Amino acid sequence: MPLHVVVLAAGQGKRMMSELPKVAHMAAGRPLIGWVLEAVHPLQPVSTVVVVGHGAERVNPHLPDGVVAAVQEEQLGTGHATRIGLAALRDIASDDTIMVLYGDMPLLGADLLRSLAGRPDDVAARMVTSVFDDPSGYGRVIRDHLGLVVAVVEERDCDDSQRSISEVNAGAYAFRGKDLFDALGAISNQNAQGEYYLTDVIGILADRGERLEPVEATPEEVVGINSQDQLSEASRLLQARTNRALMESGVWMLDPERTYIDDTVTVEPGARIYPGVHLEGSTTVAAGARVGPDVFAVDSVIGPGSTVWYSVLRGARVGADCEVGPYASLRPGTVLEREAKVGTFVETKNTTLGEKAKAPHLTYLGDATVGARSNIGAGSITCNYDGYEKHRTVIGEDVFVGSDTMLVAPVTLGDRAVTGAGSVITDNVAEGSLAVERNEQREIPGYSQRRAERHAAKKPED
């Protein structure tokens, strides 16, 4: 039957002690609200609405196309928020299923939600429950002698016997449309908080004799995020889930507990990931690549057979069979073609290294093109910024740039050109030419002795 989804995400999350809205906090590569919507996506709902409130302008950018944001201007409780969400849904029939979720539950899985959404026609609602060792802070599930759900009581409203119940309401529901609309109209705010509780809908439906089915979940699946320590724990669990799936697909990891890969990252089977690796954003790692130890890569591509270790990549593209590191920094716009090398303490920005080109150590290449098989000597840099504008350096194929060469852009070195070590190149160099720019070496005999004598003469006598 048709499915509609309402995600409640209007809370501020004061215990997070952050200006960022709770559901916009990141966990293992996605915002909390993103994880919930990712779990919903395989169910292909007819419509999805996220109810936002505090900091809506910082939550809305995380909503994918097709998801509608509905604003809860005044925080009057979860029942009130659900009404706002329902008003924004489209094409609802009375027998459609309306799933209501909380936006701070990143560990909800698609399989669990699929079970929740499979509500039979004769069931008014399904709800997710779980048994916690410590149920503090959660609403308690009240069952009758047949084991059917008859009520959910918020902890602040529990009596002593209800507070001792360990089965809790996880906050995920699937209602028959007409029953949800009717029951929401009947709830009141006569409670300790003066709010309209969505959980009261369960009691109203039970009093009407409607059938309410529990869907049991593990405590891990339904954990809600209300503080930074809970966010950290959820991130750990999500990361473990991601790493486990990657290893099951054929990715090798030496130490998964020290490997941090966003769920948005693609790692192909056959890649080898070492400890201390952080892969974020749209990064992709091809089969046969070796990444790590200690690599940070965001929105970057690491090609097949390449090795990247002890390095930082930001918006970089590393081709096949390349070598990066140790201690290299590849900034946005860097492209390494097949078998190129960027070595120890080399920084690149907006630069392309052609096939088999290499900058082995102690080099800065900014706004440059380096042709195939060219070699950049240690200590060489492209002087690309004149204080006002950036300029480009073009290095042809099979060029040998001597150590400690300063290439003052804009400048072009033709194919097979050579620069002498220590040169400052300000003019273009023709193909096959040697360019040397440095003063003639001078020697001053006896200088060392005279210097020592001058220094001794300055010392006071004993």
Task: Kindly describe this structure.
- With 462 residues, the chain is α/β, with parallel strands linked by helices.
- It folds into two domains: 3-216, Alpha-Beta Complex (Spore Coat Polysaccharide Biosynthesis Protein SpsA, Chain A), CATH 3.90.550; 228-435, UDP N-Acetylglucosamine Acyltransferase, domain 1 (3 Solenoid).
- Strands 12, 13, 15, 16, 18, 19, 21, 22, 24, 25, 27 and 29 form a twelve-stranded parallel beta sheet that branches. Strands 14-17-20-23-26-28-30-33-36 form a nine-stranded parallel beta sheet, with no helix packed on it. A seven-stranded mixed beta sheet has the order 5-4-1-6-10-7-11, with helices on both faces.
- Helix 2 links the parallel strand 4 and strand 5.
Counting DSSP H or I runs of 4 or more residues, the number of helices is: 9
Question: What is the end-to-end distance?
Answer: 102 Å
> The biggest beta sheet, please?
12 strands, parallel
How would you state the average pLDDT, rounded? 94
Poorly predicted parts: none
The value of Rg in angstroms is 32 Å
Secondary structure: number of strands:
39
Quick overview of this protein structure:
The chain is of the alpha/beta class and about 450 residues long. It has nine helices and 39 strands.
List the helices and strands and how they pair.
Layout: E1 3-9, E2 26-27, E3 30-31, H1 32-40, E4 47-52, H2 56-59, E5 67-71, H3 78-88, E6 97-102, H4 110-117, E7 125-131, E8 140-143, E9 149-153, H5 160-163, E10 167-176, H6 177-184, H7 200-207, E11 212-216, H8 228-249, E12 252-253, E13 259-261, E14 266-267, E15 272-273, E16 277-280, E17 284-285, E18 290-291, E19 295-298, E20 301-302, E21 307-308, E22 311-314, E23 317-318, E24 323-324, E25 329-330, E26 335-336, E27 341-349, E28 352-353, E29 358-366, E30 368-370, E31 375-376, E32 381-383, E33 393-395, E34 400-401, E35 406-408, E36 411-413, E37 418-419, E38 424-425, E39 434-435, H9 447-457
Helix pairs in contact: 6-7
